[in-house]
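Spend some time on this chain, tokens included, and walk me through the fold:

. . .
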Amino acid sequence: MAAAAAAAAAGGPQPPQPELPASVLALDKAATAAHLKAALSRPDNRAGAEELQALLERVLSAERPLAAAAGGEEAAAAGGGGGGPGAAEEEALEWCKCLLAGGGGYDEFCAAVRAYDPAALCGLVWTANFVAYRCRTCGISPCMSLCAECFHQGDHTGHDFNMFRSQAGGACDCGDSNVMRESGFCKRHQLKSSSNIPCVPKDLLMMSEFVLPRFIFCLIQYLREGYNEPAADVPLEKDLNKVLQLLEPQISFLEDLTKMGGAMRSVLTQVLTNQQNYKDLTSGLGENACAKKSHEKYLIALKSSGLTYPEDKLVYGMQEPSAGTSTLAVQGFAGATGTLGQVDSSDEEDQDGSQGLGKRKRVKLSSGTKDQSIMDVLKHKSFLEELLFWTIKYEFPQKMVTFLLNMLPDQEYKVAFTKTFVQHYAFIMKTLKKSHESDTMSNRIVHISVQLFSNEELARQVTEECQLLDIMVTVLLYMMESCLIKSELQDEENSLHVVVNCGEALLKNNTYWPLVSDFINILSHQSVAKRFLEDHGLLVTWMNFVSFFQGMNLNKRELNEHVEFESQTYYAAFAAELEACAQPMWGLLSHCKVRETQEYTQNVVRYCLEALQDWFDAINFVDEPAPNQVTFHLPLHRYYAMFLSKAVKCQELDLDSVLPDQEMLMKLMIHPLQIQASLAEIHSNMWVRNGLQIKGQAMTYVQSHFCNSMIDPDIYLLQVCASRLDPDYFISSIFERFKVVDLLTMASQHQNTVLDAEHERSMLEGALTFLVILLSLRLHLGMSDDEILRAEMVAQLCMNDRTHSSLLDLIPENPNPKSGIIPGSYSFESVLSAVADFKAPVFEPGGSMQQGMYTPKAEVWDQEFDPVMVILRTVYRRDVQSAMDRYTAFLKQSGKFPGNPWPPYKKRTPLHPSYKGLMRLLHCKTLHIVLFTLLYKILMDHQNLSEHVLCMVLYLIELGLENSPGEESDEEASVVGPERCHDSWFPGSNLVSNMRHFINYVRVRVPETAPEVKRDSLASTSSDSLGSLQNSGTAQVFSLVAERRKKFQEIINRCSSEANQVVRPKTSSKWSAPGSVPQLTTAILEIKESILSLLIKLHHKLSGKQNSYYPPWLDDIEILIQPEIPKYSHGDGITAIERILLKAALQSRMNKRIIEEICRKVTPPVPPKKITTAEKKTLDKEERRQKARERQQKLLAEFASRQKSFMETAMDVDSPETDIPMEITTAEPQVSETVYDCVICGQSGPSSEDRPTGLVVLLQASSVLGQCRDSTEPKKLPITEEEQIYPWDTCAAVHDVRLSLLQRYFKDSSCLLAVSIGWEGGVYVQTCGHTLHIDCHKSYMESLRNDQVLQGFSVDKGEFTCPLCRQFANSVLPCYPGSNVENNLWKRASNKSIQDLIKDVEELQGRPGAFPVSISSETNLSKEMESVMKDIKNTTQKKYRDYSKTPGSPDNDFLFMYSVARTNLELELVHRGGNLCSGGASTAGKRSCLNQLFHVLALHMRLYSIDSEYNPWRKLTQLIEEMNSQLGNEEQPEVPILYHDVTSLLLIQILMMPQPLHKDHFTCIVKVLFTLLYIQGLVALSVKCSEEDRSTWKHVGALRKNTCEAEKSYEVLLSFVISELSKGKLYHEEGTQEGAMVSPIAWSPESMEKYLQDFCLPFLRITSLLQHHLFGEDLPACQEEEEFAVLASCLGLLPTFYQTEHPFISASCLDWSVPAFDIISQWCFEINSFTEQHTEQGKALLIQESRWKLPHLLQLPENYNTIFQYYHRKTCSVCTKVPKDPAVCLVCGTFVCLKGLCCKQQSFCECVLHSQNCGAGTGIFLLINASVIIIIRGHRFCLWGSVYLDAHGEEDRDLRRGKPLYICKERYKVLEQQWISHTFDHINKRWGPHYNGL
């Protein structure tokens, strides 16, 4: 039918189409296909071909579906309307499949084609988020990746590989030797070579060759039809997606074809690249109107993309309209161009108009600069080209991308496709810029381009044949041109420079990255990079591109207001410089490693300098940078610097040959220096009004990923300039840039015109620190790569211990393109092991989860700690302090230095000869004057100088001494010329000689108010006339600034040889001092010091002693011969001065003599040490700290003692300290009540009925007990489909089955007394041991409720934290008013017989109100008890409380209450390790509050009195006469006493008694119950025995029945039980299906005894624990084998614990209150009457499994990968999808969707739901994709951490690093421990609400 409709549409005759059933149609298709195939196989196949064409024409018509898609209802109706829009395509695809198969079955056809697959490549294509692998050992290209299957099939043991989540998608490279080494190929792709694949038979693919061109053309027509240019403002995604959805089946069909292997791919390649086919089908010149229309749409689309179709449209218009063509086509086309013209212009306006306000005006460059053809012309010659065109137009639909990539294993296709891709490159960029979804689109582009450009051979070919490099550079340039603005650097008005605007989306969203990433990728190929470096035109264009980034994101310092809006554009700027400028630079540098590549460097340097010169001209730069501006972005400077460095380091170029003239150097140094000064300003808080972002920039600039592309090249460039410029000029420039020139005066007061006083000190520190870094850093000045790596690593380790991964991250590596490859990973490991020790992670339960850390070795601290490197690399200032603290600690620990050390001085790597000039800075008078001045100021205690300044001054002096220019010479005097001004200061420029030069007088300019002025006036009146001073060498007023100006002028004049060059005007008017300040006058100071004498005096000053310095060589002449003395290597300032003086003495004999002289002059007594303000501050700080510390200690001590007392009182509640029985004299003994402290109001007192005290408790539902199994081996987590965990054998399941079985046959109320519940969802109560008044607690909760602070808990649910220890809690358990003594009262042994006691018990149980507190009167206490009981009930879900058949029956509550007691006892037993061998009060005991809990439960249990008839106590202790009367009743019988759970009976009996309980009564109850338990054991044993065993035992026992001890002999009892039970049917139908229960071994007496003891032990343990809590008796410790006997005697079952020779027999504990045989036969009778009908069930109920092993979490596999590979692709059993976030429960192994909306039920997501079902609110889940464990506890959750660590002991959260992970058993144990002990809430701190969304 669809075919008919299509035929009608195509205008053909319409064949009659009866409605045929589908099968007939299929047959019909197959027949037609077979017929056509036969026709085409004939040698003359024209007729067949035409017939096929007609058929295809009919089937593949493009009219119908899209009409429907466009929403034209009438079109759909006209098309016959049948089957909805999808039917026709279905039909068409069916036809295609039939035709391809040529009449056979399509599946068989596929299989046949696959057999001829010669492809040796994997080529599997994946999309984003797929998990793949990358092996650096096997990879040739950094982008190499493997699919999981190929990776696991290959052998990569010991390789450097990691797993990663693909971001953009990719393809598997296995088998491609261009990208990876063959050794890494997997088994499948190693073997296949094309030789053994047979040739493809011609007729197999013959049909494909005919059908596919039409099919692809049809697809293209669809794409053309469906594309509508978006309207002005409507985004077009919606329409495009609609079309794409319709085409989904077609594209999938093509994709399936590509998967058929090589044979089919080559057919497809032929079809896609054949130009003739394309021309025939798409030219639009045929008769078919539809084809014509589609061609027009194609041309329109081209035009609207701003592309021209190369053939002129007139030619097209002039062709004779052939018969079928309407003129409409031509008119339509003309009309279209008209409208397009307008669209274009409006588009332009739109682009400019859209800036809106707030954006700066964009700058448009003239577009004549580029090769238009690259940007605008596009001509399609084949299907492939047009397909790619539409792929781009539709913004890279995933399906299309995958199809195009799936074809890549075909070599011919690969080349054709790459060329096509390059041809469309400009178009891709334009589409990307316009796209709304640029992120997705970027990923898809890179997905494709990475596959193409990673292959060097291919990249080279395309570079040569298609101008790839030209295209890329042009496209990048063009892209950036769209967002340029005028630069405001320097000269805002006249600047001609343009920079990119970082606020534009293009930069902010990183839209450019696909293009840059491709560029970096191709530059990594040597052959391509060489072409680039040789091509001068390209280099010029590229430098032009880089200059767009030069000076971007300019910061202007805010001086008045704080900025209103902090722009965050800086990140875009840094990212852009790193990605678009630095990474390509590193790519190019990697190819300039050898001498032969010198010319490349020369080219780059040449064009770089030209670009820099243009830049200086464009911004109108003269000699002064504009004040208060800084840009961190100088990529041109950095290119220049890095290529210089490479040239000297690797290519042996002469540095001077690539350096410009002096004037250019002076300009080059200005901006990098400006950045260094600004860093100091930012750290001095001078930019604080610019907001936080400026700090962010300063940090990013030095941060590890950026530093080697930013600060390192900047400092290197400054070092180069310093080594070539005049040192005096350079030094004065530094101090001027840092604005501290005015500070460098001898006068005690000065005026700083450019800096506030509060910033002076830190700016001076900044300037000196920078000088030190400049002079001591050797990163580019001669260090080898390994030395650099070592220095970086030591610096990072000194700041903090580091994990392996953070070290990798922090150590700057050349950001080699996109790979994440560490070039020196081998040397990385070897250096790491040389400098650091590994500290394995430690686990304190409750401590934080440690990671494996590396910490520096001792010798590293001793010899390699380099503070300079640390300062350079710290992002946060606190890291420098941290490094110094660690250094101090090391020195203290190793006993090298006790005090506070100064940063050590470290010897430097020797300088490369090219940079020797750098050291002239240390030997220039300007620096010496600065050093002298600063030493003097420090000595005189002038304000604003810190220890740090002195430290740096000494460092510089020491550097100068270390690098002195050889022997002192006397020629220095002959130096004349510009130096004149300094003569009065120092004679020469060598530091060694200048150190001893005495300076007598200095003339200074001071404010008139300064003290110096007054002194001078006195001096002038004295006999000494000023005139004489003048000649005695008074140093001149020294102005750094004036000096610098003069130098600059000289240099400029020297450089400008042309006479006509005018001296440039000064721009420095801004710097002159404002006139408002007090006038400066000249004063003359008497100094009479030299640097040496100042140092010695400073030594005295620092040590606080007089004459403290004594030249060491006077005692030990040796010292001058071997100067490297360890004594001086670590220490404080005193040590540093001693070291310097020693070095000075070593360097010259003169100095040595002068030092001795100075020391000989006895200095006049120094006045008591005057404390400078700075020191005072530090001293104050120290004192304050000391005091604070003492205060803290005091507080802590107090706190500790308080806490201790709380702990003790809390324990009192459990175990009274006095166990001495008191003599009772009066009837009313003296009762001392227990005293409690309230942690809120701090008062102590007893708990009373009016003002009860309560324990802080946490109630939580727990299913831990339910997870016990009867095997010791924990279950394994399933990691294959076969392994499954079934919960049938868990404790909870077994108990459930038992209860439901009882409820089937017995009376409900009786069943609910026969068992305990709470194995799942039982309520566990724990306390921190602190108590509070309940009214105090209420007001505390009120205050919490009003406190709006974000708490990790919900106050509305009653949650709070203990006010004292901050432990999490949610209720308060009232303490029962009572005394310590009563326990002792009740403990007295009475001499009543057991029969009397039994009667007592019965009477007491019957008395309802036997409570001191009568329930009727509502006291505060009873109210609280009620409310806590409510809390307990609400803690667990209803389904865990209601087991009764009649909902809400009191029996339910009764059962629930005693089960709470049971749960708490059982859990405490589990915490003690499952037995009581250890004895004593365990840790669990501290947290236990069973005593109080018992009171509360008992109070409520007494409300329900059991009818005395039904009280099991009677059945236990009385013989009932009329046995048969029971059976007469119609209703269901009661549960036989032998089916009762004895421990439950115990709790019922005890809780029914009035509290406090008599010890006698307790023992009585235990004795009675033990008899029942013992008989249960015997019955179970008898059922387990075989028939023969039974008869044997029956006889043995019967013989001894009448002996005196018969009732205490298990043989007798057993034989009696057997004979009694034989009366019923219990032992019948043996041997058939019962075989399972019978154990094959014969029972020996020993094994029986063991069985019975094991059977009874759980009861004894629980009972002993209960006794311990109720009566405070200690538990004795014992061996495991004697546990039974010890507990029995402790419970009073054994008269005394007697040690006898013969083995202990459990039966000796029996104490019968009624004749044993009578009561036993009564019990057996009940069983017999039940087994009459139900033998099976009767038997099952008797055998109880009481030996549960401890609960465990599932056992996890060693290697995380096994879990990951199985689970991350596993489908969820509920929604059958692969979850986005899969998780697995570690308790039961259930697989769940975390946060998955698919599995949500009533607003609960699956994990939360599972945590309620599996753990009653506690869930432990392993998140598969993140390797971390999350804990859900009730309504909160927390991330626990990971139990899988890598080889370096680190977690890998989210599997970001993808390194292999291994189980950490200790961590898993900690997790399991927290689960079992219910301490998640206390130990883990970071909880948050999950709102049921996990």
